[in-house]
Write a structure and sequence with these properties.
By secondary structure, the protein is an alpha/beta fold. The longest helix is centred in the middle third of the chain and has 15 residues. It is elongated, with a radius of gyration of 22 Å. The chain starts with 6 loop residues before the first strand and ends with a strand.
């Protein structure tokens, strides 16, 4: 069956984690279990649909809702549709019991023997991967080199995950005011930014740092900061970094997407020497750009994700001051995103 003939269903899907496991429901006595949720109504967000369906199916009252990720389900060949899930973690109150069309309630644990739908299992596995991916292990610093810039394509790291982050601006007092950062002084900002990094990044992980580590040109000082950060760091030069420290750009292939990593997303209109060199090396780029530089100062054009312009802004102000994994970014379903303000926002979709 041709994919263009498949109906796209906007579905809100809830993960409710309890002491018994993850809540599951089934609409029949012998059918597969699913995560609570259902089709979003017209003019209803999928996040609200997840909360509404959870209450209608189980009687649980949502207390808080956190967007997790987007998941495109398998094609239903019988009814010619495919669910596009917005998956939310929901904290609830009350006692779950089958309501309306729901016949059974049970709980997923890794050793359970329940019959579970393929989409539900895929979402649960992705949830556990995202959840446990935030736990760090003791890791060592890998000093960045100063290779010549290139545009060789590389794909997912064979050992560990790939993370991205930009514009730490360590020791930069004025950046707190310029970007409305929630820190009282540079000491607290430095500590929180470094702790956030090291609590996420593991020894085998690769971190693409997209420029502007600190507001000075002193390489020994920069290396002193880098020694405090875990992971294998690939340094892409920013506007405040020393000349020729790191590389100008990098191209990544991941989960079927192509990404150009650089500091300034407006490199085609920028007249500095780094931008001129990138234009020569990547003259006709039409795929996604992952960048920093703009912070939260031009949210109209450079939110976390701008689907129209195919830009992804990993300035720390938009990533909750933490590295963001490439796996998380590609899990969002980029081809359907119109706009996403920050890493914690619900995507606005086409």
């Amino acid at each position: 069956m041709r994919h263009e003939n498949i109906t796209k269903r906007r579905r809100g899907t809830a993960i409710v984690e309890t002491e018994n496991g993850i809540l599951l429901t089934s609409g029949s006595w012998h059918g597969a279990f699913l995560l609570p949720g259902g089709k979003a109504r017209d003019n209803e967000t999928r996040t609200k649909a997840a909360a509404r369906e959870l209450y209608e199916e189980t009687g649980l009252k949502p207390n808080s809702i956190k967007y997790l990720f987007h998941h495109i389900g398998e094609i239903n060949n019988r009814y010619h549709y495919r669910d596009h899930h917005t998956v939310c973690l929901i904290q609830t109150s009350g006692r779950a019991s089958p309501c309306h069309e729901i016949k059974r309630i049970d709980y997923y644990t890794p050793d359970c023997k329940l019959k579970i739908s393929a989409d539900t299992m895929a979402i649960i596995e992705k949830y556990y991967s995202q959840k446990h991916g935030n736990h760090s292990v003791d890791a060592k610093y890998s000093k960045p080199q100063k290779p010549e810039p290139d545009n060789r394509h590389i794909s997912s790291s064979q050992n560990g995950k790939i993370y991205l982050i930009s514009d730490l601006h360590l020791d930069h007092k004025n950046i707190i005011r310029y970007c409305h950062r929630p820190f009282t002084n540079t000491d607290s900002m430095n500590k929180i930014l470094i702790d956030n990094w090291n609590n996420i990044i593991a020894e085998q992980d690769t971190v693409f740092f997209l420029g502007d580590l600190a507001p000075f040109q002193d390489i020994p000082k920069i290396n002193n900061w880098l020694k405090k950060l875990k992971g294998k760091i690939v340094f892409i030069q920013g506007s405040h970094d020393p000349d020729d420290f790191g590389i100008r750009h990098k191209i990544l292939n991941h989960n079927g997407y192509k990404f150009l990593l650089l500091h300034n997303p407006d490199y085609k209109n920028d007249e500095d020497k780094t931008s001129k060199k990138i234009r020569k090396e990547v003259p006709d780029w039409q795929d996604w750009i992952i960048h920093g530089h703009t912070h939260n100062n031009n949210m109209r054009h450079y939110p976390f994700i701008n689907g129209k312009n195919k830009t992804i802004n990993v300035s720390v102000e938009l990533t909750n001051y933490k590295p963001v994994s490439l796996e998380f970014i590609t899990s969002l379903g980029l081809e359907t995103i119109k706009r996403m303000e920050t890493v914690n926002s619900e995507p606005e979709r086409y």
